[in-house]
Amino acid sequence: MHIENDSYQDIRDAIRDLCSQFPADYFRRIDEERGYPEQFVDALTRAGWLAALIPQEYGGSGLGLTEASVVMEEINRCGGNSGACHGQMYNMGTLLRHGSDEQKNRYLPRIASGDLRLQSMGVTEPTTGTDTTSIKTTAQRNGDRYVINGQKVWISRVQHSDLMILLARTTPLAEVGRKSEGMSIFLVDLHEAIGHGMTVQPIRNMVNHETNELFFDNLEIPAENLIGEEGKGFRYILDGLNAERALIAAECIGDGYWFVDKVTEYTKQRVVFGRPIGQNQGVQFPIARAFVNIEAASLMRYKACERFDARQPCGAQANMAKLLAADASWEAANACLQFHGGFGFAAEYDVERKFRETRLYQVAPISTNLILSYVAEHILEFPRSF
Ligand SMILES: Cc1cc2nc3c(=O)[nH]c(=O)nc-3n(C[C@H](O)[C@H](O)[C@H](O)COP(=O)(O)OP(=O)(O)OC[C@H]3O[C@@H](n4cnc5c(N)ncnc54)[C@H](O)[C@@H]3O)c2cc1C
């Protein structure tokens, strides 16, 4: 038996109970069909879990990031994939922190109730990648509208969302003092935008992650959809990233436990050369090492979340938690696939699906290299390399 994580047991039990209605074959079928787990996301929404971080005054449950992270961890630990809906948890933070009272009153209660989904955030562009301040999508003010032109790539859940937060340049790069200035964020009503200046091109990908290329050709959006002050959008996006990193760390931790549980059970049963393969230390040690690393990553996740909830700076901890957790889940995934032998490749064991799903987090939403670069530059004070 593994050490059972005894913190936040009520939340863990509630999520496990909900997830038990969506067993492995549900997620396997969705993966095979390249579908979207609509019923699962609906059930999570109706139970109020996706509104965990929305304050009670706007109809949410006003929980902390720590509790929210446990929700995401448990979904992935149960064999599901929070990636289908995790944007709903953290995207609203941008609106909450930087939106006007009018915007918050208008949108947050309906996001909390599930009437509106704010699942998407459009930042990444094909020609600039991680170098976000070089984005080329522009928003030009024209009376009471902004006119958007440009392109985004890898923008997730657009086909299952009502709203999207969009980052665009409102002042050309050449005219700003610092390259992080002159970008703004907007709330885009996807139903109004699609077909009226915005085109969505789904990207078929390795993980059945609903993600898309977006094209903007004179898309007009009301000026009132600007969030916060014009020109400060990049800072607003950065403000939200720590929550995103910590929640995704938690998902990786959930994945890691799922792999360890699965491979431990399997290797205790699978008999080769007349004994369970799990009797060999060559099999035990990689699994034990992955388990140790998941436990350690989980501590860093709690540290990041506690600092976030206490409104203390947590950039270092959130980034380190994401790196440790993504590495630990990937290590566990490899051990799990390896010790299932050929069966690891069979879809009905779910290992190959979870293997693909957890691999994403070495690259998105921030690559491992960029986290190391952050630690080197901002914590160890090495000179900036790019
Ligand atoms: C399934 C999926 C869903 C996504 N969802 C969203 C979304 O909803 N919204 C959104 O805005 N974006 C989304 N993304 C984009 C994601 O955030 C980016 O893919 C990620 O940030 C990496 O950017 P890139 O792909 O442009 O890689 P690049 O910037 O081209 O980098 C490629 C690789 O080069 C390396 N590298 C780059 N620069 C450096 C450096 N200076 N030093 C060392 N190594 C470096 C890194 O290893 C990196 O992985 C998603 C991506 C995927 C795959």
UniProtKB/TrEMBL annotation:
<dbReference type="InterPro" id="IPR013786">
    <property type="entry name" value="AcylCoA_DH/ox_N"/>
</dbReference>
<dbReference type="InterPro" id="IPR036250">
    <property type="entry name" value="AcylCo_DH-like_C"/>
</dbReference>
<dbReference type="GO" id="GO:0003995">
    <property type="term" value="F:acyl-CoA dehydrogenase activity"/>
</dbReference>
<keyword id="KW-0285">Flavoprotein</keyword>
<dbReference type="Pfam" id="PF02771">
    <property type="entry name" value="Acyl-CoA_dh_N"/>
</dbReference>
<dbReference type="InterPro" id="IPR046373">
    <property type="entry name" value="Acyl-CoA_Oxase/DH_mid-dom_sf"/>
</dbReference>
<dbReference type="Pfam" id="PF00441">
    <property type="entry name" value="Acyl-CoA_dh_1"/>
</dbReference>
<dbReference type="InterPro" id="IPR009100">
    <property type="entry name" value="AcylCoA_DH/oxidase_NM_dom_sf"/>
</dbReference>
<dbReference type="InterPro" id="IPR006089">
    <property type="entry name" value="Acyl-CoA_DH_CS"/>
</dbReference>
<dbReference type="InterPro" id="IPR006091">
    <property type="entry name" value="Acyl-CoA_Oxase/DH_mid-dom"/>
</dbReference>
<dbReference type="InterPro" id="IPR037069">
    <property type="entry name" value="AcylCoA_DH/ox_N_sf"/>
</dbReference>
<dbReference type="Pfam" id="PF02770">
    <property type="entry name" value="Acyl-CoA_dh_M"/>
</dbReference>
<comment type="similarity">
    <text>Belongs to the acyl-CoA dehydrogenase family.</text>
</comment>
<dbReference type="InterPro" id="IPR009075">
    <property type="entry name" value="AcylCo_DH/oxidase_C"/>
</dbReference>
<feature type="domain" description="Acyl-CoA dehydrogenase/oxidase N-terminal">
    <location>
        <begin position="6"/>
        <end position="115"/>
    </location>
</feature>
<feature type="domain" description="Acyl-CoA dehydrogenase/oxidase C-terminal">
    <location>
        <begin position="231"/>
        <end position="365"/>
    </location>
</feature>
<dbReference type="GO" id="GO:0050660">
    <property type="term" value="F:flavin adenine dinucleotide binding"/>
</dbReference>
<feature type="domain" description="Acyl-CoA oxidase/dehydrogenase middle">
    <location>
        <begin position="120"/>
        <end position="218"/>
    </location>
</feature>
<keyword id="KW-0274">FAD</keyword>
<protein>
    <submittedName>
        <fullName>Acyl-CoA dehydrogenase</fullName>
    </submittedName>
</protein>
